[in-house]
From TrEMBL:
Keywords: Cytoplasm, GTPase activation, Metal-binding, Repeat, Zinc, Zinc-finger. InterPro entries: Arf-GAP_dual-PH_domain (IPR052589), ARFGAP/RecO (IPR037278), ArfGAP_dom (IPR001164), ArfGAP_dom_sf (IPR038508), PH-like_dom_sf (IPR011993), PH1_ADAP (IPR037849), PH_domain (IPR001849). This is ArfGAP with dual PH domains 2. Residues 256-362 form the PH domain. Its main location: cytoplasm. GO terms for cellular component: cytoplasm; plasma membrane. Pfam families: ArfGap, PH. CDD domains: ArfGap_ADAP2, PH1_ADAP. Signal peptide: none annotated. It comes from Hucho hucho.
Length: 381
């Protein structure tokens, strides 16, 4: 006869082991759930997708549910390390492995790819062809440049010339835009775009950031598109630096901002009226870009963020001699060229922006950052 307390203790001991103390799928710490068909420990968020795959996975709480002796013994013979060694055996280096804070569609499709489609076991590579063949073509819904309407557009991604093209008509041979992989970035932005599969594609156009906001109703299709972009970017980076290790190139494939949100910005004399702008701060290129709204296609301007040794600093509060004592939640950013003053709506926003700026300033500048700084200064002249 099963002993509930003994079995619970055994499960709690198992989940403390180094290979089991993080979710098998997203890496979240201290997982409280387990799949007794797969033999893995998972977090509460990933357990939801496992529940949607009853033929593949069956979920129980390791603290609240009753466990038979046979199920506990099965878990003892499996565990996260053994399961991932099998289900993640052939994950391509460019394929994005979602983390705890990533959006639902990324984690959902990762779990389905691992266990349901078995894309990475080496048994069947047909699914990987959709994003690793060097060519991707598909229809996405794209937000119009000057309105909120999303329209169908054909996208063509090619590893041959390292470009992403999109066409206004499905049968058109002349692309609306040809985007180089050199500066292309893609990141999921479901909340900003207002769709659970919303993807933001950014690139440089005459040294200014331009955004495309797209989505696809099919979650597998949009994640395949995302990983096809990553595959092509990875191939481009390897061509540029063929001697680089994969582990050094993977973090450069796509990048997420460390902080986004609205602040108010004034001009260089600080007598200009404050205007509300959407700001995006990236650590990879050390740029603070700003747009009129969160869904604007074209960047209004950008500020390079260097190190303290190069004359950059940030502090709370307004600059000395400022014209108003009524400014609240002020962030003052010092650069060698000028002083920037930003107003935040809330004190928490102020703290988060200051922490984000300090993080960028604390990181050493790399050779490419000096080129970025020089190009941005040249653009302003």
């Amino acid at each position: 006869m099963a002993s509930p307390e003994r079995n619970k203790k055994m499960l709690l001991d198992m989940v403390k082991q180094p290979s089991n103390d993080h979710c098998a799928d997203c890496g979240a710490p201290e997982p409280d759930w387990a799949s007794y068909k797969l033999g893995v420990f998972v977090c509460v968020n990933c357990s939801g997708t496992h529940r949607d795959l009853p033929a593949i996975s069956r979920i129980k709480s390791i603290r609240l549910d009753f466990w038979d002796d046979s199920l506990v013994e099965f878990m003892k013979t499996r565990g996260n390390a053994a399961a991932n060694a099998f289900y993640e055996k052939c994950v391509p280096p460019f394929y994005y492995r979602p983390q705890e804070k990533d959006c639902v569609v990324l984690k959902d499709q990762w779990i389905r790819a691992k266990y349901e489609r078995r894309e990475f076991t080496g048994e069947n590579n047909s699914f990987q062809q959709g994003y690793s063949s060097g060519l991707y073509e598909g229809i996405l819904w794209k937000k119009g440049k000057d309105n909120k309407q999303f329209l169908k557009r054909r996208f063509l991604l090619s590893e041959t010339d390292f470009t992403l093209r999109y066409f206004t008509k499905e049968d058109s041979k002349k692309p609306k835009a040809v985007i180089s992989m050199k500066d292309l970035n893609a990141v999921f932005q479901p909340e900003k775009i207002g769709h659970p599969h919303g993807l933001q594609i950014s690139y440089l156009e005459e040294e200014r950031t331009r955004n495309l906001f797209v989505y696809h109703d099919n979650s597998q299709e949009i994640v395949s598109c995302f990983n096809a972009i990553r595959a092509t970017r990875f191939a481009y980076l390897k061509k540029v630096d063929p001697n680089a290790r994969d582990s050094d190139l993977v973090p450069l494939i796509t990048r997420s901002s460390i902080k986004e949100g609205y602040m108010e910005k004034t001009g260089p004399t600080q007598w200009e009226p404050f205007k509300k702008r959407w700001f995006i701060l990236n650590l990879t290129d050390r740029k603070l870009s700003y747009f009129k709204t969160s869904l604007d296609a074209l960047e209004l301007g950008a500020v390079f963020i260097g190190t303290e040794g190069h004359g950059y600093s940030v502090r709370e509060g307004q600059p000395k001699g400022s014209r108003s004592s009524r400014w609240r939640f002020v962030v003052t950013l010092e650069t060698p060229d000028r002083q920037f003053v930003f107003l935040c709506d809330q004190e928490q926003d102020q703290r988060e922006w200051i922490e984000a700026f300090k993080l960028v300033i604390s990181q050493p500048m790399l050779p490419q950052h000096y080129n970025t700084e020089a190009n941005m200064r040249r653009m302003k002249k």
